[in-house]
Design a protein that fits this description.
By secondary structure, the protein is mainly α. Among the domains are: 3-40; 74-107, no CATH class. It is built from 3 helices and 4 strands, in the order αααββββ. The strands form 2 sheets. A two-stranded antiparallel sheet has the order 1-2. A two-stranded antiparallel ribbon has the order 3-4. β3 (98-99) and β4 form a beta hairpin. The mean pLDDT is 82.
Length: 108
Amino acid sequence: MTEEEFETLLWLSRLDLPQEEKEKFFSQIREVLEHIKRIESVPVEEFVEYFFPNQGQRPLREDEAQSANFTEQALKNAPEKVGNFFACPPVLPTPGGERDESTGATEE
């Protein structure tokens, strides 16, 4: 990448950088591009691709309407529950509040 190309890139990106940062970024971009060139130079023609993630048929299932109410299943093994909710002791202390055993809520 030439300095002119870099300046064009900055202009297209609408970046207005101080000269010190321009030099730093220009150096870093050149290093990245050089690294990419090294990677591209590795001969890979001899390697055979053995995995094609988009090939083959994916098993499809029939669309069936199912209940979206998972509350009973979720609460099935709950040690305590209040209505459709898990009951648990308060996590945060409440100022002078006591836990209401029937709802699990704390009162202030």
